[in-house]
Fold this sequence. Notes:
Strand content: 15-25%
Structural class: alpha/beta
Number of helices: 11
Radius of gyration: 18 Å
Largest sheet: 6 strands, mixed
CATH architecture: 4-Layer Sandwich
CATH topology: Metallo-beta-lactamase, Chain A
Mean pLDDT: 95
Strand order of the largest sheet: 3-4-5-6-7-8
CATH superfamily: Ribonuclease Z/Hydroxyacylglutathione hydrolase-like
Number of domains: 1
Distance between the termini: 40 Å
Helix content: 25-40%
Amino acid sequence: xxxxxxxGNDTVELPFMAELSRxxxxxxxxxxxLPLAVNGIRVAASIRxxxxxxxxxxxxxxxxxxxxxxxVYPDCTVMIDSGLDQETHDSFSTPDKREPYFPEEFAKLxxxxxxxxxxxxxxxxxxxxxxxxxxPNFNELAAKTFVGVxxxxxxxxxxxxxxxxxxxxxxxxxxxxxxxxxxxxxxGIVMIKAAGHSADHQMVYIALQSGREILHSVDVxxxxxxxxxxxxxxxxxxxxxxxxVLGQLRWLNRISRxxxxxxLLVTHDGGLFDKLVQEGVIGGELAL
Length: 288
């Protein structure tokens, strides 16, 4: 979207030039009523020292939920991401250091996936796709699941976990779409191409009937503080395009400061999740 620029002495940044006016316009292109609400659910959590979560962070442990979100329409729902089953969650830790998992919440998420009219996957990482990929009724869910071309390629060629490997026949059961910078996937919902955290990473803009706007930054930052400080993650196992992520963090920071009608969602920020529920911006229970 722009040329690479230097920030400070040694940091390189790729500016992210998404056009909010165009995104807002696209949110109203598809016929049908805008959504009424957004609900969220936490099915598990990872616990990491802050030094891994944000560059320059201290050793304080941060509990980061694994979430999925539900967009509610007058007559149906759309799920944004699908959470993960316990086996997949446990594959991120060792047997002697199991991290929190909430099977009753995942059961609610499974019911919501089953009743949703559409499921949209933001990128191929296990905590976003395993709820569909590992589902007993995979064929049924795949038929209403939408993935970008890049996500389909990652699911097939570079699965996040070995047990999530898929065949071409399985991947082709998804509804695979290709687009430039933005894609209106449903009334009020626009996908925003934002490679960086992963090659297929996307953000999601949601316009509600009430006039409220929600921008789901997904995994550009793991917590809101990444956006506030414009500092990326520092986990050695996370292989990102740091220049692209920095540009996206700066764009999100500007949105958060200048667009007061837009509420940011961040996948793994539990404190932000609680705050948005308390303020009534999102619901803390899924509509089933």
